[in-house]
Amino acid sequence: MSDAVRAVVVAAHPTVRRVVEIACQEAGVIVVDSSGTAAEATAACRSHGPELLVLDLDLPDSDGFRVLADLGDLRPRSILVLAERADGDHVLRALRLGARGYLTKAGGLRDLGTTIRRVIAGERVMTPKLEKDAIGALGRMARHAREGADLAESLTTRQQQVLEFLSQGKTVNQIASRLGISPRTVETHVATLYRRLGVNTRVQAVSQAARLGLVDL
Amino acid sequence: MMVSESTIGARGGRTPAHHDVVIVEPFPVVRTGLGLIVEASPGLKVVGTSASAEETVTVIERLGRTQLVVLVSMGLAGESDAYWLIRALRERFPGIVILGLGANADPNTVSRALFTGADGFIDKNVEVEEFLEAIRDASEAEMVIAGPAADSVGTIAEGIERRRSQTFRLTRREREVLVVAAEGLTAREIAERLGVRERTVTTHLARIYGKLGVGNRLAALRLAARSGLLTLPPAE
Question: pTM score, two decimals?
Fold first, then answer.
């Protein structure tokens, strides 16, 4: 009994929570906490240190990703994610945050007991379609990272500084006085940045730069 | 998926798509074996093989086409390793499909290969059918990860993210070192020029390689030249 797996269950909807609790029971897992919000989930994981977390991504106060990010190194060894959305980017994000299983609530709650057992055993559990989509998302991410790094390398220190200030919402005059150069020169840098980023407006420039990882928003 | 598409194609009377494959593998026995397996597979044709990075560039230049899948063995060693080749191919032939070919590769190897420019990664320890299927999928512009790495997609993504953030912004000192290194000086000569210790220069160089995701000075210089960090003298 002492080495039984302990689980924290988090799902907004009471019915989903109940289904998960029953499945845990089937799988011989002890549910030490069951709640419906991200805040409660994070607190429960911190205080119980469970081996398993069954986490609904769609929570009223925040989302499940937030819970996983906040827990950091305190994340349970086995994490099973339940979600409404099932696109590659979502799955990849869950995998990056340590999830081993990813089920869509529409399709996947039937053999939940078996799934839970497999996730505890360290298996990766998701449909082949989701797995493929996640790998597709990984490919896109790698390409963006490469393009962003290449671009960053090609920018001068000055251009990088101007880009950083742009993303902070500073005006041309503000940037000029911060860098001790003329507004005219700043405008030249901005024009160059637009060209390198392939954009026409400041908003596009900042969002493209963020997508490529050149600035943090 | 690829299988169902080719089935539909056959039913529609179209000839199934043909994909040309180039195999880059240093070990002759493995190279020959891979060639036989790929060649025997419907829809795939081996149009070139190579044992080294430099040879590969020549082979592909001579083929003169971009509808290619190139399998790059991560086992390439020496001055121009697999990462060098992946980057060189990505630069010179943007349209081709590049697949890293590992032998029980860890997530870090896969991250680096993808970040450097590979379109996917296949491990030699998968079953033959999965191996061929992955080549076919990749040639249809799908991202593939086949082998143990498929179990570590999250870790691989984290590795790419780490590399991306590392690559940013060589410090001014690092740029200086790189510019002087471009003249072909030894670490000691660079140190004398910049008035620092030789040890400091080698540390800078190692850090630069790490940031740029390359394995040697030549690759670092090529990358830096391409991205406008420095200008290289024309090759003789």
Answer: 0.74
